[in-house]
């Protein structure tokens, strides 16, 4: 059999190669560059074809396709969310994605996105924090010390200059894991015994808890003036993290309102609850933080454009390196009308 | 770096391996088994979650995601259609697909589908022809001798006992290609100089022309009593193949009516034009052919369940063979909460 032609090949970034790429670039630099890539795409928000996620529900969870496109590039992510997986030693969330050329429809890059989703979620929080937190913010509270937490922390260190981190999780072992994982980062880390303890003196509070139900990891009395909150864990219908009173007192910033309405903290608010689209803050079309004592809330649920930015960034960073393998993914007959002949000659 | 765990691996069928698998099984057997797989799934039509295609349009074409699921399996296909690609030596249509486990959301199979789509489209025509053509049908007219045509012919030979094939294409070189490709199949092949010539004496007429516009490759006076028509080429908005009068005279059978309405020959008919859903014929809930002189028309546009069946069939046929490669596709940390630790240990 003749080897497949170059046209048949699609670059693929495996999990192992994504890890190699991140180490090659350096995690803080990777997160800073990715934050810029997401910011660049948010600044041209109207250029994107924005489609709601396409879900397939089962009793155990959901599988979703998240497509978006601009004039030249198309991207989609496949992602599942199955909370019961962890009990069976499986990941709750796995993901992969594809970037394609709009002009020809040909795939440009296939990539693992389990790791990349954690990275882009952290980059998105960093983008929101850079836009909305007080410029002198140096202390962060990280509530929920699961798979997302270290990436959230490193992104805020790299992009926003966070120096002190106060950690809390209902499971002390999760906090101990973060303390161990981040011991060489130069951050001052404090393990706290309650969420109330963790938020003491924090300029930025990031919540990334995992339970699929309405929680109140932050109540109104815990949040002082001038704080910026990234509420990352409330990200599907029926799952919220914050007490309604603190949501009501804060000024809310969102990604794609149609999605935040059904997945974010916005679920618990009336339909006329005011919010600002984050992209408009980034372009200067809407105010972000207007007073030092204002409480700003980024109600992050994750949106397809962030995955698009991540795929675009990895495509730029990995193309032509040995962090990609070429997959024989596209049939490329000598004569496009002769698919059968290609098959016959392969015998 | 430790090698990825078994859980991280997803079986992948490349184009080269799909060709090897087809040759290993034998093309006629592959098509007959695939026809049965599609039929089995059509017979349990109500069990599927049916979602319209999710398109992203550009001036040069369209990229679509086609998902569907039953209680246990999820499948989707990525497919593009870019008519101008051929002039640049690229395929008009390329595709790949994924099968996943609904219970865990974990991918089970990633596969090329450029070749597999041609195979499942032929299998679907064979399913419709077996259900709707006269049992004594032996002669087929194949109008449009492009990339689909040989697969359509072999499927009807394998599944429906077609012995004679009358070929026509506006480009005689395309017909010559089919004559050469099928010379060792035992079929009696006749190259015809017009569509009118090709349909003489044909019991089954399959049209698979490619132009993206309203054509009339078949007019009413060309189609005699008792014929079954597979109209495969009219498969997107603004693209039809048959004269309205022959569509009006035939009894129409469709896949998913919502999609046929905007993509099939049904486009040119009034909203109250009668049709029968093919799955109901296969289950016996609706009549198929009721008279030998009836003209039956399968207005095929391609539906996600056919891709699901094809992925399921390839998964069953290829699992555990060396026609699959394992891709390091899913991050699998020792502790699912410790994605960061997995990354750090890979340094």
Describe this structure in words.
Two copies of one chain form a homodimer. Chain A has 347 residues and is α/β, with parallel strands linked by helices. Chain A has two domains: 144 residues, ornithine cyclodeaminase, domain 1; 175 residues, NAD(P)-binding Rossmann-like Domain (Rossmann fold). Chain A has eleven helices and 18 strands. In chain A, the strands form three sheets. In chain A, strands 1, 2, 3, 4, 5, 6, 7 and 18 form an eight-stranded mixed β-sheet that branches. The first copy, chain A, has an eight-stranded parallel β-sheet with strand order 10-9-8-11-13-17-15-16. A two-stranded parallel sheet of chain A has the order 12-14. In chain A, a hairpin with a 2-residue loop joins strand 3 and strand 4. In chain A, helix 3 packs across helix 10. The longest helix of chain A is centred in the middle third of the chain and has 19 residues. The mean pLDDT of chain A is 93. Chains A and B meet through helix 1, strand 3, strand 4, strand 5 and strand 6 of A and helix 1, strand 3, strand 4, strand 5 and strand 6 of B. Chains A, B: This is Ornithine cyclodeaminase. Chains A, B: Pfam families: OCD_Mu_crystall.
What is the topology?
The structure is a homodimer of 347-residue chains.
Chain A: E1 9-13, H1 15-25, H2 27-42, E2 49-50, E3 54-58, E4 61-69, E5 73-81, E6 95-101, E7 107-112, H3 114-132, E8 139-143, H4 149-160, E9 164-168, H5 172-181, E10 188-191, H6 195-198, E11 204-207, E12 214-218, E13 228-231, E14 240-242, H7 244-249, E15 251-254, H8 257-263, E16 276-277, H9 278-283, E17 296-298, H10 304-318, E18 325-328, H11 339-345
Parallel strand pairs in A: 1-7, 8-9, 8-11, 9-10, 11-13, 12-14, 13-17, 15-16, 15-17
Antiparallel strand pairs in A: 1-18, 2-4, 3-4, 4-5, 5-6, 6-7
